[in-house]
UniProtKB/TrEMBL annotation:
One of its GO terms (molecular function) is DNA binding. It holds the Pfam family TetR_N. Residues 13-73 form the HTH tetR-type domain. InterPro entries: Homeodomain-like_sf, HTH-type_TetR-like_transc_reg, HTH_TetR, NicS_C, Tet_transcr_reg_TetR-rel_C_sf. It comes from Verminephrobacter eiseniae (strain EF01-2). PANTHER family: HTH-TYPE TRANSCRIPTIONAL REPRESSOR SCO4008, TRANSCRIPTIONAL REPRESSOR. This is Transcriptional regulator, TetR family. Keywords: DNA-binding. Residues 36-55 bind DNA. The keyword DNA-binding applies.
Length: 214
């Protein structure tokens, strides 16, 4: 038996969220082409007619799920309160958050992979996501500027490239955990391996941004 959500009193917001939660599971498991609206209806406890009423179809539902996935990580990053921390502390906290988020939300990785297979067509015109991404880059840029001013970070770091690197050091490792286990010969998800990777990620990025000695 698959995961099934408990009954909740029906109202538009609850119903929409039930559908999104069930769809996230189904799309993460089967991708857009393999996902079944019947399964989403069964898991959510919402009939197919209501799913089409709220989202208009499987493609639009997938777009909503991907949007929600990005909005979740971006909103949690903004809630970290990094602007009030010392630059190095803020950067370490962001690195730690990113690693833990990717580790604890494997559906995010599979959904991003799926959207990349579709060449990002479901989010291409999404202004809200671009606005959130711009805010995220601005937050990282602010940390960098404060770090340069305090002497902790070097000048000339591209905030966009740094954002990509912060995501990449955890995303790639977790995304390739199965092929990596075979090719490198160790269990990527072993407790000690995860701890070593977390430490490596932090050391790598912190050395990348650190001020160079005169």
């Amino acid at each position: 038996m698959g995961e099934k959500f408990p009954f909740r009193a029906r109202n538009p917001d609850n119903t929409r969220q039930l559908i999104l939660d069930a769809a996230r599971i189904e799309f993460a498991k089967a991708g857009l082409s393999g996902a079944r609206v019947d399964k989403i209806a069964e898991t959510s406890g919402v009939n197919k007619r209501m799913i089409y009423h709220y989202f208009g179809g499987k493609e639009l539902l997938f777009a909503a799920v991907v949007e929600a996935a990005y909005m979740d990580i971006r909103s949690q990053e903004q809630a970290l309160g990094l602007d009030g921390l010392a630059p190095s502390e803020a950067m370490r906290l962001l690195l730690d958050f990113t690693w833990k988020y990717h580790l604890q939300n494997p559906a995010f990785i599979t959904l991003v992979n799926s959207e990349n297979l579709h060449q990002a067509r479901h989010i291409e015109g999404n202004r809200q996501l671009r606005k959130l991404q711009k805010a995220y880059v601005g937050m990282v840029e602010g940390i960098l500027q404060r770090g340069v001013a305090s002497g902790e970070f070097r000048q000339g770091i591209d905030a966009v490239q740094l954002c990509i690197s912060i995501a990449a050091v955890s995303f790639y490792y977790l995304n390739n955990r199965y092929t990596g286990r075979v090719l490198f010969g160790f269990d990527f998800m072993n407790k000690n391996a995860l701890l070593a990777r977390r430490q490596f990620n932090t050391q790598t990025i912190m050395r990348m941004v650190a001020a160079r000695p005169d």
